[in-house]
Design a protein that fits this description.
Elements (H helix, E strand, L loop, with lengths): L2 H19 L3 H13 L12 H7 L4 H14 L3 H9 L23 H4 L3 E3 L11 H10 L1 H8 L3 E12 L2 E11 L4 E11 L2 H17 L9 E8 L2 H8 L6 E7 L5 H12 L1
Parallel strand pairs: 1-6, 4-5, 5-6
Antiparallel strand pairs: 2-3, 3-4
Helix pairs in contact: 1-2
């Protein structure tokens, strides 16, 4: 087979594989490049996100190792890392000469991790979708779901059964966060926030505290994710539970640039 033929075959293979996996060809090429650079999974640093690695895989070994080390040490964001690479920071060795090889990382606070609103525009849902449909779509798109939640999250369970007073209850989703070192219980609500949601979540958290913790873990955290919330109502409904339960909205549709401009013009009129 000629080189041109092999190249053409390879492109067709990538195209079909991307279609089967329901991802873009650009993303698939990045995944392949990532695997070539980092073939051994346990060599990856948990403090770097996929977006960090997308920048790092384009660099040669020595330069990449420099940016890996100092991104972790200085907690550079993706935007900062991109700027450092653009400025060829690795050539400025004197600024980093006495930097220790390892850094003690302080654990983040829960309020620094959870969001006020989650962008789930990648989900294919109708306007009157049910909680079951919402949950199924999140699981079917688990990679994008975890990326939207942020760094350090992993999926543990769906419809986790717990037995309370002879009755079975089900927690919609259970995640784990490696930085907080605790289970994250998630309840999905396709309606406006209600105070009853807090009582339900608090019950689940108390059960997990007493029956489902491993030694060394901190107590679990609950997230109620609803279609709409009123900040004042949430404030008084949570009270002293603000450190254990967080309330967020979710969006399944975000307006594009043209729609935003159109809306802004209406506001100005």
């Amino acid at each position: 087979m000629k080189y041109e033929d092999r190249a053409g075959y390879g492109k067709k293979l990538i195209k079909h594989l991307a279609t089967d996996l329901k991802i873009s060809r650009a993303l698939l090429f990045e995944v392949i490049q990532f695997y070539k650079v980092y073939p051994i999974v346990h060599t990856l640093c948990g403090q770097l996100s996929w977006s960090h690695y997308k920048l790092l895989i384009k660099l040669n070994v020595e330069i990449r190792q420099f940016y890996e080390k100092f991104t972790v040490y200085n907690s550079w964001s993706v935007r900062q890392l991109k700027q450092k690479i653009k400025n060829e920071e690795h050539l400025n060795k004197t600024s980093y000469k006495n930097t220790p090889s390892k850094r003690t990382i302080s654990l983040p606070k829960p309020e620094d991790i959870f969001k006020e609103s989650y962008n789930w525009s990648f989900l294919k849902l109708t306007s009157n979708h049910t909680e079951k449909e919402l949950e199924s779509e999140l699981i079917n798109n688990i990679q994008k779901t975890l990326l939207e939640f942020g760094h350090g999250f992993s999926f543990s369970a769906r419809q986790q059964k717990i037995l309370i007073a002879g009755q079975w209850h089900k927690v919609d989703l259970v995640f784990y966060n490696r930085f907080l070192r605790c289970p994250i219980l998630i309840e999905l609500k396709t309606e406006k926030f209600k105070r009853d949601h807090v009582a339900q979540m608090n019950q689940y958290l108390n059960y997990f505290k007493e029956n489902d913790l491993i030694e060394g873990e901190r107590t679990p955290i609950g997230i109620i994710i609803c279609k709409e919330k009123n900040h004042e109502e949430v404030h008084y409904a949570l009270g002293d539970l603000k450190k254990d339960i967080f309330v967020a909205e979710y969006k399944t549709y975000l307006p594009n640039e043209k729609e935003l401009i159109k809306k802004l013009k209406k506001i100005k009129q």
